[in-house]
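Need a sequence for this fold. Nothing fancy.
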């Protein structure tokens, strides 16, 4: 990550709130925008990615998990007269960071909107200006099983757009130490 990165904590109250946040983030994403989605199994990474893709290609479209194919590509999609592509990658099964080159992700980071699950597998290929979302189950067990805490590391270039997306989605935002 770059030195100009802000850290915030989000509380996301269930799947609909995760989907709202994803849709709001899809609203500002442009080619070259990458989201690195981390967290344990069932924490919300795939829910976020599917809702993000559907916000851009249509709510009724099937968005399969790229667990076995590693990458699903969508597009080109006409967005205001500009053709965009979306790349959704699940790198859980990636054996070596050099495989990123074989998948073409290094190029896609500059030309497409990318959603990367299990980004730790990228090694040094992770884009410096990516938005990193780390999903976790709420520490407060009284909050309910659907509530997620998300740590967001947001580079300066995306900070205003991300803050507006959180507000639009109705997501509670706190400072890093709250």
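Here you go.
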């Amino acid at each position: 990550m770059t030195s100009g990165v802000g850290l915030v904590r989000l509380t996301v109250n269930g799947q609909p709130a995760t989907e709202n946040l994803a849709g709001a983030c899809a609203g500002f994403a442009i080619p070259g925008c990458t989201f690195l989605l981390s967290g344990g199994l069932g924490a919300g990474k795939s829910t976020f990615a599917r809702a993000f893709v559907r916000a851009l290609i249509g709510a009724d479209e099937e968005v399969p998990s790229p667990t076995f194919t590693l990458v699903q590509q969508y597009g080109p999609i006409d967005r205001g007269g500009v053709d965009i592509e979306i790349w959704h990658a699940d790198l859980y099964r990636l054996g070596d960071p050099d495989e990123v080159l074989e998948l073409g992700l290094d190029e896609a980071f500059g030309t497409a909107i990318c959603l990367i699950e299990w980004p730790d597998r990228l090694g040094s290929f992770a884009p410096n200006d990516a938005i990193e979302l780390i999903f976790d189950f709420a520490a407060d067990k009284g909050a309910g099983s659907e509530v997620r805490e998300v740590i967001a590391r947001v580079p300066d270039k995306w900070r205003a757009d991300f803050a507006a997306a959180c507000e639009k989605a109705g997501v509670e935002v706190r400072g890093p130490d709250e």
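For context: Residues 5-98+132-174 form a domain with the Rossmann fold fold (CATH 3.40.50.300).
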